[in-house]
Amino acid sequence: MKLSQRQLNRAVLARQGLLERRALDLPDALDAMGCLQAQYAPSMYIGLWSRVKDLRRDAVTEALNEREIIQATLMRFTIHLVSAGDYWPLALAIRDSRRAWWGRVTKHEPLDEPAAKLREALKAGPLRRKEIEAVIGKDAIQGIGAWVDLVRVPPQGTWEKRRADNFGLADDWLPRPEVEDPLRHLVARYLTGFGPAAQGDIANWAGMPNKDVAPTLAGLVTHEAEDGTTLYDLPDLPLPDEDTPAPVRFLPTWDATLLVHARRALILPEGLREHVFHVKMPQSIGTFLVDGQVAGTWKPDGTVTPLVDLTKRQRTQVDKEAAALADFMA
User: In the sheet that 286-290 helps form, which strands lie side by side, from edge to edge?
Assistant: First the structure.
């Protein structure tokens, strides 16, 4: 089946919960959207608010405290928020590629010795980042998560205490299940939230070479993009018509729908990319969508800046959604 670019846009919006807020509990919502990128704690809350019906802000903190959802450094050495059921399959799937990337980029030896020291130190309970540095040194701390499975322990990394710098052993935080095929789970999770997708999109999101993803693609549904690229998918997932209406939605900083691995959906038009990601703004900026594409930016102080011409009706919808977000944040 050949899919238009606009069909791909609507497919990703549907799977992300951005065509219609979904009445799901938070673990199921995260699974459905393929995890949530979370370098900045408030972005987790706002990203979920845009996708989950009637979300209470405190519900996110409560789910973190109850260990129903987990904040951890995972794909591409980036902080993600995932369901408790997703944590171990994803962590195991990317372990080897993370270690290989660390060695290739830093030229460091494997971190087995610092890892042993850290595991011993963490037996007494979670440690803050500076305490971990004192145990293993600053050179090792950037890559240690590829050798020691760590979660970010609340109350740090929440709306109330935003710096996510308290770390605990994942094995102590949630039981490790038997995982039959973690890499296949990882591919399925990406397609659930971002498909249909090319092999390179999946690999980019996972932070691993294309060749490592290839063995998991056999037996998947295939489509064709406008440029002839083969797109892989799971059966029975949403493929809305390209004319499906898309409501105004506000996205937080670093929303994953705007990143390179989801570029084919053109949720962020290429001509506007420099307004959202550039060297002078490393944390990116909040954006809002009109008709399924970024149409402007917003700031927590209430500033809304259109980047394209809006009709009077569209501006009214943007202002209404901005007011709802302000109420959520207040």
Answer: 249-251, 286-290, 293-298, 304-306
Q: State the alpha helices, DSSP H only, in 253-296.
A: 273-276
Q: Is the dihedral of CA 84, 88, 90, 91 positive or negative?
A: positive
Return the H-helix or E-strand segment holding 167.
Answer: strand 166-169
Cα 320 from Cα 208, distance rounded (Å): 41
Pairing of strands 127-128, 79-83: unpaired
Q: Give the whole-angstrom CA distance, residue 148 versus residue 197.
A: 31
Please state, in angstroms and rounded to a whole number, the distance separating the CA atoms of residues 195 and 12. Answer: 6
Sign, CA dihedral 131-137-139-143, equals: negative
Cα distance between residue 92 and residue 87, in whole Å: 9
Tell me the mean pLDDT in the region 243-265.
96
Which pair of tokens denotes residue 223?
């489509």
CB 7 within 8 A of CB 41: no
Tokens 């890892």, located at residue: 115
Ramachandran angles phi, psi of 53, nearest 5°: -70, 135
CA distances from 234 to 4, 190, 197, 214 (A): 18, 10, 10, 15
Model pLDDT, residue 279: 75
Task: Using pLDDT thresholds of 50, 70 and 90, give the confidence band for residue 284.
Answer: confident
pTM of the entire predicted model: 0.95
* Backbone phi, psi, residue 253, to 5°: -60, 145
- Classify residue 301 as exposed, middle or buried by CB count within 10 Å of its CB (0-12, 13-18, 19+): exposed
Q: What is the pLDDT of residues 69-128, one digit of tens each?
A: 999 999 999 999 999 999 999 999 999 999 999 999 998 899 999 999 999 999 999 999
Sheet holding 166-169, edge to edge: 127-128, 166-169, 150-152
